[in-house]
Amino acid sequence: MTRRQPTLAIQVRDRLRALIVEQALRPGDRLPSENELIALFDVGRTSVREALKLLEQEGVIQARHGDGRYLTSQPSLDRPLTRLEGVTEMLASRGHAVDNTVLDVFATEPNRHQRELLQLPAGETVVRLERLRRHQDDALLYSVDLFPRSLVGRPLDEVDWTGSLFELLTEYGHDVAYAVAQVRAVTLGPAQAERIGATEAGGAWLLLIQTHHDGAGRPLLYSEDYHRGTDFSFHLVRRRD
User: Which residues contact 191 (CB under 8 A, 6 or more apart)?
Assistant: First the structure.
């Protein structure tokens, strides 16, 4: 079955979202004019107007008669849930300049549940990697990853943990092919909020729990990614049998 391409208006909308991030526009800032966007994206006026209308309907921008369009809220990162991508790749694809902070990384003994998920033999330890992604000092995503220590044959202090974990595993011959995922709506407790430097506990976060496998079905990686609800959304297509 041929995969349908997004309409030109949707493509322009997504480029506008990236432009907002690249130019670090904040709520209240004025967007470039229609003529400027036509020249920048090399598209027609109709496509630009349709894209702007989509952003208005999403509540991201507001039109002021005779005075242009203004940003009212930061656009969320909307991704298809069926697309498997690393967090680093996902944020980069939307033009986010992200500060990736390693909060902790160490080898440890897995608990019973983790050992079963990763199908680990007795005595096998795991690497626990805890990271925080920030954009303009705002906490966007907090993640905890677990994978067998044997997958990376280097001392932990010699690895750059700020990059893509998928790329690191591929470097050692372990390609992630698919993941089994759950999505939950959660709030952060006081300890978690303090851990990531959030201003206060609570608030809506999307927790994506995944077990990643290679092409042969071997589990490689278990991850818990907390996405700030005001900045992320996921969509999928549901069909009747």
Answer: none
Tokens 């983790």 map to which residue?
A: 114
- CATH number 3.40.1410.10 given to 77-235: yes
* Tens of pLDDT, residues 190-228: 888 888 877 656 678 889 999 999 999 999 999 999 988
Instruction: Please tell me the chain's helix, strand, coil percentages from 3-state DSSP, rounded to the nearest 5.
Output: 30, 35, 40
Per the CB < 8 A criterion, the answer to whether 25 and 63 are in contact is no
Q: Which of these, 71, 84, 88, lies nearest to 32 by C-alpha position?
A: 71
Burial class (CB in 10 A: 0-12, 13-18, 19+), 216: exposed
Any idea what DSSP says for residue 30?
A: B
147 C-beta neighbours (distance < 10 Å), count: 22
Distances (CA, A) of 183 to 81, 108, 196, 236: 9, 26, 21, 12
Cβ proximity of 27 and 71 under 8 Å: yes
Domain ranges of the chain: 8-71, 77-235
User: In Å, how far from its chain's centre is CA 209?
Assistant: 13
Q: Which fold has domain 8-71?
A: Arc Repressor Mutant, subunit A (1.10.10)
User: pTM score, two decimals?
Assistant: 0.65
Q: How far apart are CA 93 and CA 86, in angstroms?
A: 11
| Cα distances (Å, whole numbers) of residue 55 to 21, 23, 100, 166 | 14, 17, 28, 32
